[in-house]
Structure formats: C-alpha cells, structure tokens
Amino acid sequence: MTIQASSEHTKVHCIPLRARFGLTARAGCLLLLTAIGAACTGPKYQVSDEVLSDLPLQDKQRMLAVQGEINQANEEKNKAQSDIATDDRDIAVAEAESSQARLEPDKLEANLRLAERSQDLNRIGPAKASFNAANSAKKTSEAKLKWLQHRRDYHHMMVEVAELHGVSAQHRYELEKARLAQSSGKLPSKDFNVAQFEGQAAQAQQKYDQARTRADQHKAETSQLEQGYTQLASSRPSN
Questions:
Q1: CA gap 47, 1 in Å, rounded
Q2: Which of 74, 112, 178, 194 fits a 20 to 30 Å CA distance from 51?
Q3: Is position 42 within any domain?
Q4: Is residue 226 part of a domain?
Q5: How far apart are CA 91 and CA 84, in angstroms?
Q6: How far apart, in whole angstroms, are the C-alpha atoms of residue 76 and residue 73?
C-alpha cells in the first residue's frame, strides 16, 4: 500500500478568476480567489485507489458516496455556467432598453419646458405626464440592469463555490480511503496518520463553507434588487 503526497489534482477542474465580475461582487470574488489558489493544487495526502481495490464493495460505501458528491459539484458548476449564459443574453437586452430609456426624458423635458412657457394647461398636462412616464421608465430600466448584473455576479460566484465544493469532496474522498485503510489494517507506513487526512479535509470544507456563505449573502442582495425593480415596474405611470 502507498500513500502519496501529491500536487496532482484529479476529477475537479479549477479555472482562474477573470475580470468578469461586476464591482458589487469583486470583494467576495477576491476572497474566493485566495481560497481557490491552494485548492487547485489537489489533496496533499492521498491513498492510492489500487491499494484498496481488493476490499469488498460493501466496505467502500462511504467512498462511493463521496464520489457521487464530486459528480454533483461538477453539475453545480455546469448549471452556474449555464445561468451565466442566460444572464449575458438578458443583460444585452436590458442594456439596449436602458440606453433608449435614457434618451427620452431629456427630449420630453424640453417639450415640458416649452409647454410651461406657453402657460397652456392643455399642453402642460400631457407634456408633464409624458415626461413623468419616460423618467419612470428610465429608472425602471436602470434598476432592471443593476439587478441582472448583480445576478450574473452571483452566478459567477457560484461557479467558484461549485469548484470549492468539488475540492472539499475530493479531500473527503481521500479521508474515507485513509479511514478504510486504517480499519482494514492496510497501513502504508509506521508514521501513517489519519489525522493528516482529517486536517486537510477540514480545511477544504471550511473554505467551501465560507465561499458558500458569501455567495448566499450576494444572493440575498440580488433578491432585494429584484424586488426593487419589480416594484418600480409595477408602479410605472402610463403615458
């Protein structure tokens, strides 16, 4: 039996953070970068799968359960990346809407000022209504764009969270192998110590939990922005 201290990382694919986050998420994402920097090197302490290959399958149930979690983390990452693609499309549309909405109030305000100088109430009323409607549309479009950008930031964070989830599961997979090696009496050396595996698994879990907490906080902020946009959209005056 062999135990390996390896920098090679398998099954979990890490990607570097890029300049793809909005300003609202950058602080949290920089923290994620710190956590992922070490995570992408893989578990330091590893037990070769081949050493345990002759053990009964029923003894490996905990190992297999953790393997399933590694696969789940990969799917979580795929889902987050799909959500980002949706966000990109929605934001492109929202940016076009916002650009158009920013132009209308200035033009209609000029019309309103002309009507006010004429002191013609028949002109002032409609001009004021048109200006208020356009100004409301501008604020609504800006709120929508801010919400969607914040939502995309959250999904970017979830990509990193999924990666850390996979890394944590990979470390626990090595821990389960070490425990099985110990319980089956297949100790690789005199200084074999399960505590080393427990320590690295605990550190990886802590980084994942912290990233998950930051992402949850960002999700709550995104929900607040969505509610604000919804309220503005529902209260828009008609032209």
A1: 8
A2: 74
A3: no
A4: yes
A5: 10
A6: 5
Residue 236's nearest CA partner among 130, 91, 96, 122 is 130
Structural domain boundaries enclosing 125: 20-32+62-234
Contacts by 32-37 with C-beta closer than 8 Å and gap 24+? 32/157, 32/160, 32/161, 32/164, 32/211, 32/214, 35/164, 35/207, 35/210, 35/211, 36/160, 36/163, 36/164, 36/167
Distance between CA atoms of residues 51 and 180, nearest Å: 11
0.90 exceeded by pTM: no
**Helical spans, DSSP H, in 119-193:** 121-183
Phi, psi of 5 (to 5 degrees): -105, 100
Residue appearing with tokens 């795929």: 78
Question: Rounded to whole angstroms, how far apart are CA atoms 166 and 164?
Answer: 5
Q: What is the mean pLDDT of residues 81-105?
A: 92
pLDDT tens, residue by residue, 164-222: 999 999 999 999 999 999 999 887 777 889 999 999 999 999 999 999 999 999 999 99
